[in-house]
Amino acid sequence: MNYAELNMEKLTLATEMLKAIAHPMRIAIVGYLDDGVQLTVTEIHERLGIEQSTTSHHLGILKSKGVLSSKRDGKNTYYFLKHKALTGILTCIENCGCQD
Predict the structure, then answer these.
(1) C-alpha–C-alpha distance, residues 34 and 88, integer Å
(2) CA gap 2, 86 in Å, rounded
(3) Is residue 97 pLDDT above 70, yes or no?
(4) In whole angstroms, what is the distance from residue 49 CA to residue 39 CA?
(5) Which domain holds residue 50?
(6) Is residue 94 domain-resident?
(7) 1 in a structural domain
(8) pTM to 2 decimals?
(9) Cα 71 vs. chain centroid, distance in angstroms?
């Protein structure tokens, strides 16, 4: 990769997405939505074991920073990763955090 040709606008967006992900609950949410999985707020809050309002707060942050997208289907809103490239971020986090 030629770092001299990096687009500052894209780098700024990537930085904002990484900041949004940088929380244990939000990392877990990204993990649950890996590989094209789509889940509702209720499904996510049950898996996390936290209040639904707290889950909604985390989802709002991830969505506002471009990490997640959502779609409505009847009464339910399904959340999913906005960019397929984000699926590898958990592997990177795991590899960086698990060194002895």
Answers:
(1) 9
(2) 21
(3) no
(4) 15
(5) 19-89
(6) no
(7) no
(8) 0.84
(9) 15
Residue with the two structure tokens 């989802």: 59
Q: How far apart are CA 21 and CA 84, in angstroms?
A: 15
* Beta carbons of 61 and 55 less than 8 angstroms apart: no
Q: Which residues contact 94 (CB under 8 A, 6 or more apart)?
A: none
Is 76 domain-assigned? Answer: yes
Number of structural domains (the chain) is 1
8-51 residue pLDDT tens: 888 888 889 999 999 999 999 999 998 889 999 999 999 999 99
Burial class (CB in 10 A: 0-12, 13-18, 19+), 70: middle
Phi-psi region of 81 (alpha: psi -120 to 50; beta: other; left: phi over 0): beta
Tokens representing 68? Answer: 């997640």
Measured CA to CA, the distance from residue 87 to residue 30 in angstroms comes to 8
